[in-house]
User: Fold this.
Amino acid sequence: MISRKEIKIAASMACADFWRLEEQVRTLEKAKVDILHCDIMDGNFVPNFSLFPDFVTTLKENASIPVEVHMQIVNPERFIETFIDAGADSICFHIETIHNVHRIIQQIKLYGIRVGVSLNPSTHPAVVEYVLSEVDFLTVMAVDPGFYGQTFIPEVLEKIEYLSNIIHTKGHSIDIEVDGNMNVENARKCISAGANIIVAGTSSIFRATGNLEQLTNEFREAISA
Ligand code: DX5
Ligand code: ZN
Assistant:
């Protein structure tokens, strides 16, 4: 099912060049990137560490683009207020880390920000069926979270189609975001399956070589065609 919603780009800020962060954020603003996607890792749910509350605040206080927090951590309910206070405009947590999903969604919605649920590649999409009426977006991982530069898992295309169909059938308006190895080819397949937000990392705009603005504009043009 082709996504009928406007295609958006979420820049994966863990992939940015931190030595040139301000310059890169200004470039992302100029290239009209839609979301600054901040991966938070705890070395427990994923075997790595990445961004943190003060990084979110730095972006929120200095950039004009909405800031999204992707909680790749266990017990995310402990840090909802921390990232709200840090300035998050949207928060997604992993369904694999929570037992009482409605409760944490309500906890986040109390602050009037967008709430999403993220699913690892092996997690069946049926697990979110009974929270679709509560969420604003779903983040489908196309790689096991924790590291950039990994390889796309093609089985997630079936998952995106499943979610897109059930969202459409139930009459919800929920964004489907895909995160992990989103190069042009993979992103186009995910959009055809029903996704409308693409997390852009080292596979697209934050390549080791190339001009960030040019890569971003070319990526947007290629996936929106
Ligand atoms: C993985 C992260 C992804 C990743 C995207 O845990 O959530 O955002 O950094 O970068 P690439 O394009 O390198 O997969
Ligand atoms: Zn992410």
Q: What stands out?
A: The mean pLDDT is 97. The first strand starts at residue 8 and ends at 12.
